[in-house]
Write a structure and sequence with these properties.
Layout lengths: L8 H12 L14 H13 L16 H21 L9 H11 L5 H7 L3 H15 L4 H4 L7 H14 L9 H11 L15 H15 L4 H13 L2 H13 L4 H32 L4 H25 L6
Helix pairs in contact: 1-2, 2-3, 2-10, 4-13, 5-12, 6-9, 8-13, 9-13, 10-11, 10-14, 11-13, 11-14, 12-13
Length: 316
Protein backbone atom coordinates (compact mmCIF):
# COMPACT_ATOMS: atom_id res chain seq x y z
CA UNK A 1 0.00 0.00 0.00
CA UNK A 2 1.17 3.50 -0.83
CA UNK A 3 0.68 6.44 1.50
CA UNK A 4 -2.79 8.02 1.09
CA UNK A 5 -3.56 11.35 -0.51
CA UNK A 6 -3.47 14.44 1.67
CA UNK A 7 -6.71 16.11 2.73
CA UNK A 8 -5.33 19.38 4.07
CA UNK A 9 -2.25 21.25 5.22
CA UNK A 10 -1.24 18.93 8.06
CA UNK A 11 -1.64 15.68 6.13
CA UNK A 12 0.12 17.22 3.14
CA UNK A 13 3.18 18.07 5.22
CA UNK A 14 3.20 14.88 7.26
CA UNK A 15 2.76 12.62 4.23
CA UNK A 16 5.46 14.55 2.35
CA UNK A 17 7.77 14.01 5.32
CA UNK A 18 6.94 10.32 5.42
CA UNK A 19 7.56 9.68 1.74
CA UNK A 20 10.69 11.84 1.54
CA UNK A 21 12.12 10.76 4.87
CA UNK A 22 12.77 14.41 5.72
CA UNK A 23 10.98 14.93 9.03
CA UNK A 24 11.18 18.35 10.63
CA UNK A 25 10.34 19.43 14.21
CA UNK A 26 8.18 22.16 12.64
CA UNK A 27 5.55 19.51 11.91
CA UNK A 28 4.58 19.77 15.57
CA UNK A 29 3.33 23.32 14.98
CA UNK A 30 1.08 22.62 11.97
CA UNK A 31 -2.65 22.68 12.73
CA UNK A 32 -5.08 20.48 10.78
CA UNK A 33 -7.46 22.24 8.41
CA UNK A 34 -10.40 20.24 9.69
CA UNK A 35 -11.59 16.78 10.74
CA UNK A 36 -10.67 15.01 7.48
CA UNK A 37 -7.16 16.46 7.56
CA UNK A 38 -6.72 15.43 11.21
CA UNK A 39 -8.16 11.94 10.84
CA UNK A 40 -6.26 10.93 7.68
CA UNK A 41 -3.03 12.18 9.29
CA UNK A 42 -3.67 10.17 12.44
CA UNK A 43 -4.68 7.11 10.42
CA UNK A 44 -1.44 7.34 8.44
CA UNK A 45 0.68 7.65 11.58
CA UNK A 46 -1.10 4.68 13.14
CA UNK A 47 -0.56 2.65 9.98
CA UNK A 48 3.18 2.84 10.59
CA UNK A 49 2.53 0.42 13.47
CA UNK A 50 0.53 -2.00 11.32
CA UNK A 51 1.80 -2.85 7.84
CA UNK A 52 3.32 0.49 6.91
CA UNK A 53 3.59 1.90 3.39
CA UNK A 54 5.65 0.80 0.42
CA UNK A 55 6.88 4.37 -0.11
CA UNK A 56 7.75 5.09 3.55
CA UNK A 57 10.91 4.00 5.33
CA UNK A 58 10.10 1.61 8.18
CA UNK A 59 12.59 3.38 10.46
CA UNK A 60 10.18 6.32 10.72
CA UNK A 61 7.76 4.30 12.85
CA UNK A 62 9.25 5.68 16.08
CA UNK A 63 10.47 9.08 14.89
CA UNK A 64 10.01 11.47 17.84
CA UNK A 65 8.62 14.36 15.76
CA UNK A 66 6.03 12.11 14.15
CA UNK A 67 5.12 10.68 17.55
CA UNK A 68 4.65 14.24 18.81
CA UNK A 69 2.22 15.00 15.97
CA UNK A 70 0.40 11.75 16.69
CA UNK A 71 0.17 12.54 20.39
CA UNK A 72 -1.45 15.90 19.70
CA UNK A 73 -4.03 14.38 17.37
CA UNK A 74 -4.70 11.56 19.82
CA UNK A 75 -5.30 13.99 22.66
CA UNK A 76 -7.91 15.83 20.61
CA UNK A 77 -9.60 12.61 19.52
CA UNK A 78 -9.69 11.19 23.03
CA UNK A 79 -11.08 14.44 24.43
CA UNK A 80 -13.86 14.41 21.81
CA UNK A 81 -14.73 10.78 22.52
CA UNK A 82 -14.85 11.34 26.27
CA UNK A 83 -16.98 14.47 25.88
CA UNK A 84 -19.54 12.56 23.82
CA UNK A 85 -19.74 9.63 26.25
CA UNK A 86 -22.36 9.76 29.01
CA UNK A 87 -21.74 8.67 32.58
CA UNK A 88 -23.43 5.31 32.95
CA UNK A 89 -24.14 3.21 36.03
CA UNK A 90 -24.05 -0.44 34.99
CA UNK A 91 -25.26 -1.61 38.40
CA UNK A 92 -23.95 -4.48 40.48
CA UNK A 93 -24.16 -7.05 37.69
CA UNK A 94 -21.57 -5.76 35.23
CA UNK A 95 -22.38 -8.13 32.36
CA UNK A 96 -26.13 -7.59 32.60
CA UNK A 97 -25.63 -3.85 32.84
CA UNK A 98 -23.33 -3.70 29.82
CA UNK A 99 -25.59 -5.91 27.71
CA UNK A 100 -28.54 -3.70 28.67
CA UNK A 101 -26.63 -0.53 27.82
CA UNK A 102 -25.73 -1.90 24.39
CA UNK A 103 -29.22 -3.28 23.69
CA UNK A 104 -30.91 0.02 24.56
CA UNK A 105 -28.89 1.84 21.93
CA UNK A 106 -30.99 2.20 18.79
CA UNK A 107 -29.32 4.07 15.97
CA UNK A 108 -29.70 4.09 12.17
CA UNK A 109 -28.88 0.78 10.49
CA UNK A 110 -26.95 0.49 7.24
CA UNK A 111 -27.45 -3.29 7.33
CA UNK A 112 -31.22 -2.90 7.49
CA UNK A 113 -31.08 -0.58 4.48
CA UNK A 114 -28.91 -3.05 2.58
CA UNK A 115 -31.30 -5.91 3.36
CA UNK A 116 -34.35 -4.09 2.00
CA UNK A 117 -33.57 -1.18 -0.28
CA UNK A 118 -29.92 -0.61 -1.22
CA UNK A 119 -28.81 -0.72 -4.83
CA UNK A 120 -25.85 -2.72 -6.10
CA UNK A 121 -23.82 0.47 -6.50
CA UNK A 122 -24.56 1.57 -2.93
CA UNK A 123 -23.43 -1.78 -1.54
CA UNK A 124 -20.24 -1.53 -3.60
CA UNK A 125 -19.63 1.83 -1.91
CA UNK A 126 -20.18 0.22 1.47
CA UNK A 127 -17.83 -2.69 0.81
CA UNK A 128 -15.05 -0.33 -0.24
CA UNK A 129 -15.49 1.71 2.95
CA UNK A 130 -15.74 -1.35 5.20
CA UNK A 131 -12.56 -2.77 3.67
CA UNK A 132 -10.48 -0.24 5.61
CA UNK A 133 -11.14 -2.16 8.81
CA UNK A 134 -12.22 -5.61 7.65
CA UNK A 135 -8.94 -6.24 5.81
CA UNK A 136 -7.15 -5.91 9.15
CA UNK A 137 -9.97 -7.26 11.26
CA UNK A 138 -9.03 -7.87 14.91
CA UNK A 139 -5.49 -6.54 14.41
CA UNK A 140 -6.03 -3.54 16.74
CA UNK A 141 -7.32 -5.74 19.55
CA UNK A 142 -4.19 -7.91 19.31
CA UNK A 143 -2.22 -5.04 20.86
CA UNK A 144 -4.19 -5.51 24.08
CA UNK A 145 -3.25 -9.15 24.68
CA UNK A 146 0.05 -8.62 26.58
CA UNK A 147 -1.59 -5.99 28.79
CA UNK A 148 -4.00 -8.41 30.46
CA UNK A 149 -3.73 -10.84 33.35
CA UNK A 150 -3.92 -14.58 32.58
CA UNK A 151 -7.73 -15.05 32.75
CA UNK A 152 -8.89 -12.30 30.38
CA UNK A 153 -5.77 -12.79 28.26
CA UNK A 154 -6.68 -16.44 27.63
CA UNK A 155 -10.30 -15.49 26.84
CA UNK A 156 -9.23 -12.76 24.42
CA UNK A 157 -6.88 -15.21 22.71
CA UNK A 158 -9.76 -17.69 22.38
CA UNK A 159 -11.79 -15.03 20.60
CA UNK A 160 -8.83 -13.87 18.51
CA UNK A 161 -7.92 -17.43 17.51
CA UNK A 162 -11.34 -17.72 15.88
CA UNK A 163 -11.00 -14.30 14.22
CA UNK A 164 -7.62 -15.35 12.85
CA UNK A 165 -8.94 -18.55 11.29
CA UNK A 166 -8.19 -21.15 13.98
CA UNK A 167 -4.69 -21.51 12.60
CA UNK A 168 -5.78 -21.71 8.93
CA UNK A 169 -4.77 -18.57 6.98
CA UNK A 170 -7.54 -19.25 4.47
CA UNK A 171 -10.12 -18.84 7.24
CA UNK A 172 -8.92 -15.53 8.65
CA UNK A 173 -11.91 -13.23 8.73
CA UNK A 174 -9.84 -10.60 6.92
CA UNK A 175 -9.03 -13.15 4.22
CA UNK A 176 -12.69 -14.12 3.87
CA UNK A 177 -13.55 -10.47 3.33
CA UNK A 178 -10.76 -10.13 0.76
CA UNK A 179 -12.13 -13.15 -1.10
CA UNK A 180 -15.58 -11.58 -1.09
CA UNK A 181 -14.21 -8.32 -2.47
CA UNK A 182 -12.36 -10.07 -5.27
CA UNK A 183 -15.40 -12.14 -6.21
CA UNK A 184 -17.47 -8.93 -6.27
CA UNK A 185 -15.09 -7.25 -8.70
CA UNK A 186 -13.38 -5.05 -6.11
CA UNK A 187 -9.72 -4.79 -5.18
CA UNK A 188 -8.89 -7.13 -2.28
CA UNK A 189 -5.53 -5.59 -1.41
CA UNK A 190 -5.05 -4.03 2.00
CA UNK A 191 -5.80 -0.29 2.13
CA UNK A 192 -6.78 -0.12 -1.53
CA UNK A 193 -9.69 2.25 -0.92
CA UNK A 194 -8.28 4.51 1.79
CA UNK A 195 -8.59 7.59 -0.44
CA UNK A 196 -12.33 6.94 -0.76
CA UNK A 197 -12.91 6.45 2.95
CA UNK A 198 -15.13 9.15 4.48
CA UNK A 199 -14.02 10.85 7.66
CA UNK A 200 -16.44 8.74 9.71
CA UNK A 201 -14.63 5.57 8.62
CA UNK A 202 -11.26 7.08 9.46
CA UNK A 203 -12.49 8.07 12.91
CA UNK A 204 -13.90 4.60 13.57
CA UNK A 205 -10.56 3.03 12.72
CA UNK A 206 -8.56 5.63 14.63
CA UNK A 207 -10.61 5.12 17.79
CA UNK A 208 -9.81 1.40 17.75
CA UNK A 209 -6.10 2.10 17.33
CA UNK A 210 -6.15 4.80 20.01
CA UNK A 211 -7.68 2.48 22.59
CA UNK A 212 -5.56 -0.53 21.67
CA UNK A 213 -2.16 1.16 21.44
CA UNK A 214 -2.33 2.75 24.89
CA UNK A 215 -2.13 0.42 27.88
CA UNK A 216 -4.05 2.90 30.05
CA UNK A 217 -6.98 2.60 27.59
CA UNK A 218 -7.02 -1.21 27.47
CA UNK A 219 -10.46 -1.34 29.14
CA UNK A 220 -11.86 1.04 26.51
CA UNK A 221 -10.53 -1.27 23.81
CA UNK A 222 -12.28 -4.21 25.48
CA UNK A 223 -15.50 -2.21 25.83
CA UNK A 224 -15.34 -1.38 22.14
CA UNK A 225 -14.81 -5.04 21.35
CA UNK A 226 -17.76 -6.03 23.54
CA UNK A 227 -20.12 -3.61 21.79
CA UNK A 228 -18.79 -4.58 18.37
CA UNK A 229 -19.35 -8.29 18.98
CA UNK A 230 -22.72 -7.80 20.69
CA UNK A 231 -24.10 -5.82 17.74
CA UNK A 232 -22.63 -7.85 14.88
CA UNK A 233 -24.70 -11.02 14.55
CA UNK A 234 -28.06 -9.44 13.58
CA UNK A 235 -26.61 -6.89 11.13
CA UNK A 236 -24.45 -9.62 9.57
CA UNK A 237 -27.59 -11.66 8.90
CA UNK A 238 -29.24 -8.61 7.30
CA UNK A 239 -26.16 -7.91 5.20
CA UNK A 240 -26.10 -11.51 3.94
CA UNK A 241 -29.77 -11.34 2.96
CA UNK A 242 -29.25 -8.01 1.19
CA UNK A 243 -26.24 -9.31 -0.70
CA UNK A 244 -28.24 -12.35 -1.81
CA UNK A 245 -31.13 -10.11 -2.87
CA UNK A 246 -28.78 -8.13 -5.10
CA UNK A 247 -27.04 -11.16 -6.57
CA UNK A 248 -23.63 -10.68 -4.97
CA UNK A 249 -21.35 -13.75 -5.13
CA UNK A 250 -21.49 -16.42 -2.45
CA UNK A 251 -17.98 -15.51 -1.26
CA UNK A 252 -19.20 -12.09 -0.12
CA UNK A 253 -22.22 -13.49 1.67
CA UNK A 254 -20.02 -16.16 3.27
CA UNK A 255 -18.06 -13.52 5.16
CA UNK A 256 -21.23 -12.23 6.82
CA UNK A 257 -22.68 -15.72 7.33
CA UNK A 258 -19.55 -16.59 9.31
CA UNK A 259 -20.24 -13.67 11.67
CA UNK A 260 -23.87 -14.57 12.32
CA UNK A 261 -22.86 -17.62 14.33
CA UNK A 262 -19.37 -16.63 15.49
CA UNK A 263 -20.30 -13.29 16.99
CA UNK A 264 -23.22 -14.75 18.93
CA UNK A 265 -20.54 -16.69 20.85
CA UNK A 266 -17.98 -13.90 20.83
CA UNK A 267 -20.31 -11.44 22.53
CA UNK A 268 -20.49 -13.63 25.61
CA UNK A 269 -16.72 -13.98 25.71
CA UNK A 270 -16.16 -10.27 25.13
CA UNK A 271 -18.63 -9.05 27.76
CA UNK A 272 -18.40 -11.68 30.49
CA UNK A 273 -15.07 -13.45 30.27
CA UNK A 274 -12.87 -10.62 28.99
CA UNK A 275 -14.24 -7.20 29.99
CA UNK A 276 -16.06 -8.64 32.99
CA UNK A 277 -12.90 -10.25 34.30
CA UNK A 278 -10.87 -7.08 33.83
CA UNK A 279 -13.29 -4.90 35.80
CA UNK A 280 -13.59 -7.58 38.48
CA UNK A 281 -9.85 -7.17 39.00
CA UNK A 282 -10.02 -3.35 38.84
CA UNK A 283 -13.51 -1.83 39.27
CA UNK A 284 -12.12 1.64 38.49
CA UNK A 285 -12.00 0.59 34.82
CA UNK A 286 -15.79 0.29 34.42
CA UNK A 287 -16.22 3.77 32.96
CA UNK A 288 -13.46 3.13 30.44
CA UNK A 289 -15.31 0.01 29.31
CA UNK A 290 -18.39 2.20 28.89
CA UNK A 291 -16.30 4.72 26.94
CA UNK A 292 -15.21 2.02 24.51
CA UNK A 293 -18.69 0.54 24.13
CA UNK A 294 -20.35 3.91 23.62
CA UNK A 295 -17.67 4.99 21.16
CA UNK A 296 -18.25 1.87 19.07
CA UNK A 297 -22.01 2.48 18.95
CA UNK A 298 -21.79 6.25 18.50
CA UNK A 299 -19.23 6.19 15.70
CA UNK A 300 -21.21 3.55 13.85
CA UNK A 301 -24.28 5.80 14.15
CA UNK A 302 -22.29 8.69 12.70
CA UNK A 303 -21.09 6.52 9.84
CA UNK A 304 -24.61 5.21 9.16
CA UNK A 305 -26.10 8.71 9.15
CA UNK A 306 -23.43 9.96 6.74
CA UNK A 307 -23.75 6.94 4.42
CA UNK A 308 -27.54 7.07 4.30
CA UNK A 309 -27.45 10.82 3.68
CA UNK A 310 -24.92 10.37 0.89
CA UNK A 311 -27.21 7.84 -0.76
CA UNK A 312 -30.30 9.99 -0.20
CA UNK A 313 -31.70 7.11 1.81
CA UNK A 314 -33.82 6.82 4.92
CA UNK A 315 -33.17 4.07 7.46
CA UNK A 316 -36.14 1.72 7.30
Amino acid sequence: MLAPKARGSLSEQVLAALTSGQVSPTLRDVEPDGPEDAQVTLWSLYELHYRGFEDVDDTLEWHPDLLAVRAGLEAELEADLRERCPEVDLGDDFAAGLFSFIEQHDGPSVARFVQRDATHEQVMDLLRWRSIYHLKESDPQAWVVPRLSPGPKAALMELQYDEFGNGDPQLLHAHLFAQGLAASGLRPDYGAYIDEAPVEVLEENNAMSLFALHRRLRAASLGHLAAFEATSSGPSRRMSRGLSRLGFPAEMSAYYDEHVEADAVHEQLAVRTIAGAVVAEDPSLVQDVVLGAFTCLDLEDRFAEAALARWGAVDA
